[in-house]
Each structure stands twice: as structure tokens, then as C-alpha cells.
Amino acid sequence: MTIETLSTVRSHGGTQGVYKHASTTTGTDMSFAVFVPDHEDGAKLPVLWYLSGLTCTHANVVEKGEYRAACAEHGVIFIAPDTSPRGEGVPDDPDAAYDFGLGAGFYVDATAEPWAKNYRMRSYIEDELPSLILRNFASADLKRQAITGHSMGGHGALTIGLRGQDRFRSVSAFSPIVAPSRCPWGEKALTGYLGDDREDWHAYDACALLDQGLRVPDLLVDQGDADNFRAEQLKTELLVEACERNGQKADIRMQPGYDHSYYFISTFMAEHVAWHAERLKA
Ligand SMILES: N[C@@H](CCC(=O)N[C@@H](CS)C(=O)NCC(=O)O)C(=O)O
To answer: What positions does UniProt annotate as the active site of this protein (predicted)?
Structure first.
């Protein structure tokens, strides 16, 4: 479980690093980014995971997410994994489409061929990467974790958050896919990675998990009302209804004029970090 440091740089009173390791889960090298605010020797800091959307690596949020000032202020470690396995021999969408295959792992453990060997982002985020962080980042306090994400990564944050009820004190999302069983991106991905049996999809559908009785301690969602993907793919209203129907505590905010981009995410990032920090320190 060794990691290679690809880069470190000082920023906002902390260290932004990018790392690589050989993943036993995906069978590939995986890279990820970690921002660690300066802290006293021996101090333990809570952790906020950020899962990225379609086409992204760790680099999109590192370059455009604007989380560092808020994480330094609140003393929160920020971890940004990749969105899929990559490298020689890793299968990709036959048409190299942006919404399946490389850059589009959908945070599932694939069971269908030829994806099952490498596309295991659920286990990677739930098991392998936390163990790696525990062993290599002495200041990371994994008793205090929160999770957020954008779009496909918002779906990842919601579903990993709901399934890992004891793991996260708070869950948030920016423009998440809330019901992948009921939108074209999700139907394509879940059919491809898991097969045609929709029963197998429920573990990866936030609204279905809420209907099955799973809950998170607290939920914050921001969604731009000028987001091109809102009506067809994201379907925020289904999450509003599922939270109301199931008594899930949630603040789901429609933000006027904002689109799907990092201009939107970076606008509300500091609020999300502060919101998580409050719950992580309570
Ligand atoms: N317009 C994009 C659709 C994918 C997309 O919007 N990806 C979002 C996440 S779902 C993203 O964060 N893209 C990278 C970026 O904006 O830096 C494309 O066709 O490649």
C-alpha cells in the first residue's frame, strides 16, 4: 500500500498534493488529490471527500473548485479521487462516448463483461482509498468524514453516503444525478456495467435507496436552474419528492441562473465546506 507523490504545492496555508498508487481493486494505477491544511504536530483533521463528474479526473476540482481557502479556514482535509480506472488494457466505450467507460465509472462495482475486472469504483471509494489514506496521511481523522460531489459524482456522494450510513456525518452534492435508473446517462451506465435486471440497479439509485429506508444524517444539495442537464438527466425534483416521502432531512436549493459548470460549483463550494465543517466538528 505505498503511494507515489506526483506533486505537492503550497496554497492557502496548506499543501495540495497529487498522488498515485497501484490499486488492487481496479487492477490499475490510480491517481488522487489531497489538500491538507497546516496543523499542529499530532493534530487530527476531519475529511471531506469530493467525487467528480463525467469526463473528470482529480484535476478539474483541484484547478477550478476553489475549495482550498475554506478548507484551510475550517481545518478540513479535501480528497478528490479519479472517476474511473485508466490505462493500458482498460476497456472503454466502443464509440469513446464521454458518458460511459473512461472518465465515467459511475461509482459502481461492474458485474457485466468486459467491465467487471477494472470498473470497481464503489469498492475503491468505500474500501481501498480510505485504507490507503489512513496509512499514509497521519493527520486524517477517518472517524469524522463527510462526502460531496458533482453530477455523476453527486450521484456517487448520495449513494455511497446513503449506503455507508455510519461513515459520514454529512452528505452534500452539486447538481447530482438523483435517480440514474430513470435518466439516459444512468440507464446507459447501469445497463452496461450491471446488465438488464433493474433490481440490481437499486443500490446505485439514491431515490431507490431512500425508498428502501436508508438515510443520511443531513443533506445539502445545490442545483442551478439554468443547468442544461437538469430536466433530462439530473431530475432534482425526484430527490425532493423522495426526501419528503421518506422523511429525509434535506436542504435542496435551486440556484437561479447557474449552469452545470465549475463556475457554479466554485460559487457554492465554500458554503458546502463550512456546512460540512460545522457537522464534522460538532
Ligand atoms: N459537455 C461535456 C459533458 C460532460 C460534463 O459536463 N461534465 C461535467 C461533469 S458531469 C464536468 O465537470 N466537466 C469537466 C469540467 O467542466 O471541467 C462534454 O460533452 O464533455
So the answer is: 151 (charge relay system), 227 (charge relay system), 260 (charge relay system)
